[in-house]
Amino acid sequence: MQHVPLKKFGQNFLTQPAIAQKIVNALDISNTDTIIEIGPGAGVLTQYIIEKKPAHFTAIEVDPRWADHLQTTFGSPVQILRDDVLHADLQKLHSGSGSFKVIGNIPYNITSPILFKLLDYFPAISQSVLMMQKEVAQRIVSQPGGKDWGILSVLMQTFADITFLFDVGRMNFKPAPKVDSAVLRFEYLERVEGLDNLSLYTKIVRSVFNYRRKMLRNSLIRIFDQKIVSSIDFIDLSRRPEQLSIAEFKQLSNKINLFL
Question: Residue 221 is part of a domain; what is its CATH number?
Answer without folding.
Answer: 1.10.8.100
